[in-house]
Design goal:
mainly alpha, globular, 3 strands, 3-stranded antiparallel beta sheet
């Protein structure tokens, strides 16, 4: 499966318009995802405009990847992000890792068949 790559980020903060351009989406979609996925933008300028950090842009990339590239529903994307977050906090055993790898392989094959 293709993974969306963010171009090299050289600044500390990016405006909502710049982030929209990176992902080629409307700024309204970014604001919607912000509400829907319950994440706050840590920094705003004096006018109240959002300023996205590299960390926040990575979170948006994950959402974009799941929703726009892989075709997840919003609920499915939320569940997937929660699972990933839990897996990082509680890494699986080697037996579980093997099973996960097998299941992901099956999933990739099914997706490939679906796109034929």
């Amino acid at each position: 499966m293709n993974e969306f790559q963010v171009p090299k980020l050289t600044k500390l903060y990016y405006s909502i318009g710049e982030v929209g351009d990176i992902f080629q989406v409307n700024t309204s979609l970014l604001r919607f995802w912000e509400k829907e996925f319950n994440f706050d933008i840590a920094k705003k300028n004096q006018k109240g405009n959002r300023l996205y950090s590299v960390k926040e842009i990575e979170r948006i990339r994950q959402i974009y990847q799941l929703v726009k590239v892989e075709g997840y529903t919003l609920e499915g994307a939320k569940k997937r992000l929660n699972r990933v977050s839990k897996a990082i906090k509680n890494p699986p055993s080697s037996e579980q890792s093997e099973l996960i790898a097998q299941l992901e392989s099956i999933k990739d094959r099914l997706i490939a068949l679906k796109t034929l």
